[in-house]
Amino acid sequence: MDWIKDIAIAIIIAVVILSFFKPIIIQQESMQPNFFSGDYVVVSRQAYTLFGDVEHGDVIVFRSNLLDEEGNPKHLIKRIIGIPGDTIEIVDGTVIRNGERLDESYISEKGMSGEMSPIIVEEGKLFVMGDNRGVSQDSRSQTIGQVDQETIVGKVVIRIFPFNRFKLFP
Known about the structure:
Low-confidence stretches: none
Distance between the termini: 43 Å
Radius of gyration: 18 Å
Strand content: 35-45%
Helix content: 10-25%
Structural class: mainly beta
């Protein structure tokens, strides 16, 4: 009878943990050199409902309008560049937010962003980009566009694998 109680407690703990956190395996190259295909990350499902608002530079996972092999919405991992009300443009491969050039030490190659006329991030939306700008499908394309905040799965809070690249994200 004790083992039934132990199993029940384990199930309850798992349900509680999974309601706050979701493990995800990255399957894209769009966030290199910071995240690689095969990295295991944990996202906080409650990051923006319990612990604050979205912020510039946050790395999020969201449901895109792209479909995976089974026909389900594909999860993408990207960095928040613009929040509602921000004006974003790309000039000479440099992202400019609200008239200021961004210092993007996290991107893989400088100048890979191309050109983009100024846009204003809509209310309830985000402008996101991958760190590997040359291969990233992100808010620059009409396929992805501005991301609805309702589609956010969570904020990346920890990379747990590979172990030699373990890292906590604020």
